[in-house]
Structures are given as structure tokens and as C-alpha cells.
Amino acid sequence: MVNKLIIENFALIDKLELDFDLGLNILSGETGAGKSIIVGALGLLLGGRASTESIRAGEEKSTITGLFSIREEYAEKLRQSYGIDAEDNQLIIERDVYQQGKSLVRVNGKLITVGMLKSLTRPIIDLHSQHQHHSLLDPTQHIDILDLFGEASFAKEMGIYQELYKKRIEIKRKLAKLFSNVENRERQMDLLKYEIDEIESANLYQGEEEELDKKLDKLINSQKLYDSTQNAYQQIYSGKTEASVTETLGVVATDLKAMAEKDDSLKGMTEVIENALFNLEDVSRELLAYSEGLDMDPHSLTEVENRIEEINRLKRKYGNTIEEILSYKQSKQQELDALIDSEESFKRLNGQLEEIESKILKKGFNITKTRKRIAEDISREIKANLQDMSMKDIEFFVDFSLKHDENDGIDYNGKRIAIHEEGLDVVEFLISTNPGEPLKPLAKIASGGEMSRVMLAIKNILAEKEKIDTLIFDEVDTGIGGRTAQKVAEKLYDLSKNRQVLCVSHLPQVCAMADKHFKIEKCQQKGRTLTDIISLDDTKKIEEIARMISGAEMTQGTINNAREILALADSIKKNMNN
Length: 578
Known about the structure:
This protein has 578 residues and is an alpha+beta fold. Helices cover 56% and strands 18% of the residues. Pfam families: SMC_N.
């Protein structure tokens, strides 16, 4: 429940503190006094959208703080799910809204997101605002309202169905991509084949570029290489005009060998010279073979240059290196294989689609069956609640139908029925308020007051089911008066016997049933308009209810009338509590 609300620099509020109690807490005041400001501040603590326009003029930020008591089991869930320690089962929620548009949320000192705030407060507080009336007027919202009454097993079944629904979307997306355009598919296959053939016919291999670069350099310098090696050969082995190196060394070796017979110390040196001579003869033969084997054909140079140009052309199209080109070819081969296999893929995906759609129909009809059982139960309870609120002849019915969809439906008994994320059903609430009148859509028959009572009945049933500790109503009594207003007041009080109810009201009958009554009013302070709130004692309650009866001026008659309304309310409350 909400124990305390502190509002700072919000709309017309400078600083305001409100202490709420269990039971029925009523907020009243003249039109424009700021009742909606209080509800708006509470809405921010529940994860509502923040607006910089709500920041009090001249201030940098608004701050809304709430102290909440929660159940022990929910305190444990907060620890496990959000890492928030709720000591003594207390939550302090603080939200700052800044002029720059930034919004900060703290729960027991821990920074969390607005989305997390909305999620963690949903099980403990329910705020009914005027826009929720519009959800009753919109039939597409009725299925969501109905599903709120489902048990955990129903939610589990819905989860399974929604997974099947998502899988179907994915399969249909793949099928659409596979056969979106047959002509484009053929064109794509032709292009892939051309690219693969072009790369394959080039017979590229890793390291070829390095080999070609070396070969090109050798061919370009072949004449220089020939001249140099021939010159070296002639100098070493076959001098034409003068003795070659080997000839000179041969003479030296012969002389030294002869002398070595006379002096053994020359034998080692002689062997070195002879070995050098043998090595030079080997080198000279290799030089001759190298020079005679050089490719000096201009055609060979052209071939290498053409090959390099071919590789560069492929690099411009398919990758910066031969490795990238070969990798590109591999990926395109996979694409081609996939397209070649597309017919098989189509058969496989179609089989999967048929299987998924069969499961969707089976699960969808099971959900429909469960929904109809839920609808019977809540229709009976809503009818009973509405009869308690002076709608004696009310009939309430939840209508189910299937919608046809030739484009994206699932075949069922020769017709293609539409499916959606919530199942197969089209759900609409129907109502009849007078005997003998046919059931019609809410939007076509219900008045504003009737709509308020239908929503109150729904909230009443839902609160019992979900064990919500605090219900907040923003003028749920719109469009009613007299005896009906009294019945709505009694329903609100009945709701508040086991929980906290906060209600903005403009009806004296509702205010008279309050356990705690607050009056919201405007005042002037230092030339500025402020919203203030007062917790009313018994005397002030009489005056406020008298004001609500008479308007601006109070008379002794309206004061007496207010006393009578309060006395009647006390009597009714005693009877309801016995």
C-alpha cells in the first residue's frame, strides 16, 4: 500500500506530503484545483511517462517520492528478480524528472530503469485513469482485458502459442525470400555461375603472385643476367684474350705441388689451392648452365605480364588478394548450392509450415475453449457487480468469432481463418441495459456512467484475483448520481475493506464513505498559484460535502443535508462491516 507521497516542484505543487491509510482514501476539490496532479504524480511512481511540462516553472527538476508497504512474499521476489533489498517490507521509490528530459528512478537507493519500475510496481498497485474507459470502447482491447483473468496455466498455454506464432512468421519470411521472384532467382544463379567459372578458370593458387613477381623481375633483367653470368664464366674458366682464373690457379697448383715434394709444409697450402680450383670449375659450369638456360623470349615476358593483369582484374572484382578471391568463390558456391537446393528447401519449409499451422490451430482452439470458460465466469461476476450498482436488468456477454483472411490465414474446414498473436479469437464485450433489448457492443449502448461501472466491476474482480493491495481510481464515478452514486460508493467501500483504495471523486455520496478524506484546493502565495491538500476532520468533511452539494455557496440546508449523507454513510458502513 501507499503510506506516504511527497511531491516537490510538480505542476502547481511547491512541496506537498500526503499520508494515506488502509481503507477508502478520497481526494476531492473544485474543478482545476489539482486532483489530477496527485494522480499524475502517483502515475510517475508506477512508471508512467514523464513530461518536462509538469516541472514547476522556474525549477530544474520535479521529485516524486513514495513510501510503500509490500507483502513478505513480494519482498523476497524483489530481492531475487531485481536485487532490491526491501527491509521491513518497505519500498522507497524516488523519481526525478529534469528540464533536459532526463528521468532518474531509485528504489531503496538503487538506480533502475523506468521499464523496471513499471514492472515491479504492477503487482502491488493498479491505477485506473480516464483513458482506460477508452479501452472498453475499443473492441480490439477486449481480448487483453479478458486474458487478465486467466490462471497461470492459461498464461503458459499462451506462451507456447506465441512461440508457434513467431515460428510461423519466420518460416513464411524464409519462403517469401526464397521465392519472392523466380526470375530474379534465375538471374542470380546465372550471375553466381559466371563468377564461379571465371575464378575457377583462372586456376589461382596461394603464393602465385609472389612467384609471378619474381619471374617478372627475372625476365625483365634476363639480358643483364646473361651478360653478367657469361662474363663471370669467361673470367673464371675460359678467358679468350688472357689467362682465366682457373688457368692461373692451375699453373700455381702444379708448381706448388712439385715444390711440396721437396718441402712437406707446402702440401696443406697446395691442397687449399687445388680445392679452390675444383670449386671454381664447378661454379663455372653452373654459371654456364644458368646463362644458357635463361628464358630471354619476349613472348614469355608477355605471358607473365598478362597473367599478372588477369589476377589484378580478378582482384578488382572479387578481393584484394588471391586468398580473398578464393574465399569469395567459396561463399558464392555456397549461395549457388543453396539456390540449387531451394526447391528442396521449399518443400522442407512448406512441410514445417503445415506442421506449425496444425499446432497453431490445435493450441488456438484450446485457448478459445479456456477463454470461453473464463468469459462465462467473469460475465456472471460482472453482471452481479453491476446489479449491485443499480443496473438490475443488465446483461453482459463476451462474444467470440473467427475472422477470415484469404492472404495470410490458415486453412480450416475449407476457409482461411485469421490468426494473431493472442490466438484465433475476435472478442467483443456486449451489453444490454434494459429488459427485452438485444445485446449490443459497449460503444453503441453504454453511457459514460455505465462505462464507469463496468470498468469498476472489472477492476473489482481483477483485484480479488490478483491480490493487488492498492487500487487508484481517477473519477471512476463520472456520469452518475443519486441512488447509483450511492451504490458505486458502497462498491468502492466494499473494495477497500481488504485493501487500500485511493479515489478522486466529485460525488458527495462517495466522499461520505471515505475512511480518510483529503481536500485539494488552490491558493496564492507570494504572487504564485499553488495546489495544497488538507486532511479533513469531521467538521471539514461536512463543509466539503455541503460545498459539493450546493456549489460555491453553502446554506444551513446544505450543511444539514451533508450531515444526513454522512450519517447514512456511517450506518451503511456499519452494516457492511457486520
